[in-house]
Structure formats: structure tokens, C-alpha cells
Design brief:
By secondary structure, this protein is α/β, with parallel strands linked by helices. The chain has 3 helices and 5 strands; from the N terminus they run E-E-H-E-E-H-E-H. GO terms for molecular function: transferase activity. Residues 13-100 form the Rhodanese domain. Keywords: Transferase.
């Protein structure tokens, strides 16, 4: 298997692009992209039926490591998955919106 996975920079994503956030619940609760859907990496194998059918399917985590592993797995399963380089840290650093579901101040955990 190649160590390379399809990757895109945050700056190359349209602002409202749907993304799949694979961080754990506490990370998601602390702050996430407005267009993100949540499916923790730790639950992925048991919830494959919930993987969105987006083409391409942009996948994000905190810094890009877990999402790269998820993208490698999903591409093996035939999904057109793409890793978001730098993850939510890069997302926030480039000034992209970060929200919470409860209205608290968002942060990248």
C-alpha cells in the first residue's frame, strides 16, 4: 500500500464544502466546521453505512494524521476520500469558521 493518500489544503476548499470530521466527541463538541458531519474514527468500522456519499469525500481530524488513516481505509473500500491537510488546526488558523452546537466559545481541542 502506498503511504500517499489524496490530500487537499484547507485554502483550496470552498467555504461551504461538506466535510467528514473523524475526531472524538469531546473534540467535536469543543468546535467544528459548520458544514461538517461527525463520525469518530473509533466508530468508523461499525458505522460504514453512515459514511456520506460525497464525491469527493473530504475528511478532517485535528491535525491530519487520523484523517489520513481514515482516507487510506475509505479509498480501499472504494470511497473517493480526500484528506484535509493540517486538519481543524489549519482550518482555524486560516480563519475558517468554527462553531459549537451549544453556543459556547469554539476551540480546537
Amino acid at each position: 500500500m502506498s503511504d500517499q493518500v489524496p490530500t487537499v489544503r484547507v485554502s483550496d476548499l470552498p467555504a461551504d464544502t461538506p466535510i467528514l470530521d473523524v475526531r472524538e466527541l469531546d473534540e467535536w463538541t469543543a468546535g467544528h466546521a459548520p458544514s461538517a458531519r461527525h463520525l469518530p474514527m473509533s466508530e468508523l468500522a461499525g458505522r460504514m453505512g453512515e459514511v456520506p456519499g460525497d464525491d469527493p469525500l473530504y475528511v478532517v481530524c485535528r491535525s491530519g494524521g487520523r484523517s489520513a488513516r481514515v482516507v487510506a481505509y475509505l479509498t480501499q473500500q472504494g470511497f473517493p476520500a480526500v484528506n484535509v491537510a493540517g486538519g481543524m488546526q489549519e482550518w482555524a488558523a486560516t480563519g475558517r469558521e468554527v462553531i459549537t452546537d451549544d453556543g459556547s466559545a469554539p476551540r480546537i481541542a
